[in-house]
């Protein structure tokens, strides 16, 4: 909440400088600072595309970050029901089947566990 409070102060400053009222009940949290209106639905994907190109990074979509988030939550040991609730899925199978992936470090960990088991 502290981050959102800081954002709100910054947003108020920017919008006030261009003459937009900022203390209305229907003020958007993230609005186009030039028009104080919604950004186009495609805007985040365009911003991400520019960043990926500028930093020569592998392509990922904004939705791809959702998959990464779920995978990393599982990797750190968060329970499937907690991830399901966080993602708003009706059942945990959706979370497991679609949003989680096996990371390379988890593959190595599994191989090490199996090797240790076979050595005993």
What are the SSEs and their pairings?
Blueprint: H1 2-17, H2 43-54, H3 62-75, H4 80-87, H5 92-99, H6 104-119
Helix pairs in contact: 4-5
Domain Tyr recombinase: 1-112
Keywords: DNA recombination
Organism: Ligilactobacillus equi DPC 6820
Q: What is this entry, summarized?
A:
The protein is mainly alpha-helical and 120 residues long.
Please give a structural write-up.
- This protein is mainly alpha-helical.
- It folds into two domains: 2-39, no CATH class; 62-119, no CATH class.
- It has six helices and no strands.
- It has helices at residues 2-17, 43-54, 62-75, 80-87, 92-99, 104-119.
- Helix 4 crosses helix 5 (92-99).
- The mean pLDDT is 90.
- It holds the Pfam family Phage_integrase.
- InterPro entries: DNA_brk_join_enz, Integrase-like_cat_sf, Integrase_catalytic.
- GO terms for molecular function: DNA binding.
- Residues 1-112 form the Tyr recombinase domain.
- It comes from Ligilactobacillus equi DPC 6820.
List keywords for this structure.
120 residues, DNA_brk_join_enz, mainly alpha
Task: Classify the beta-strand content into a percent band.
Answer: under 5%
Uncertain spans? none
Cα-based radius of gyration, to the nearest Å: 21 Å
Shape: elongated
Mean pLDDT: 90
Number of helices: 6
Order of helices and strands: HHHHHH
Number of strands: 0
The N- to C-terminal Cα distance equals: 51 Å
Q: Main sheet?
A: none
Number of domains: 2
Question: Percent helix among the residues?
Answer: 55-70%
Structural class: mainly alpha
């Amino acid at each position: 909440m502290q981050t959102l409070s800081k954002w709100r102060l910054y947003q108020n400053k920017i919008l006030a400088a261009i003459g937009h009222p900022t203390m209305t009940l229907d003020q958007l949290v993230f609005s186009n600072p030039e028009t104080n209106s919604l950004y186009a639905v495609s805007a985040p994907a365009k911003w991400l595309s520019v960043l990926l190109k500028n930093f020569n990074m592998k392509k990922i979509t904004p939705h791809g970050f959702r998959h990464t988030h779920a995978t990393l939550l599982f990797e750190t040991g968060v329970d499937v029901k907690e991830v399901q609730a966080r993602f708003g899925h009706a059942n945990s199978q959706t979370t497991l089947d679609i949003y989680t992936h096996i990371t390379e470090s988890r593959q190595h960990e599994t191989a090490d566990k199996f090797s240790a088991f076979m050595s005993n």
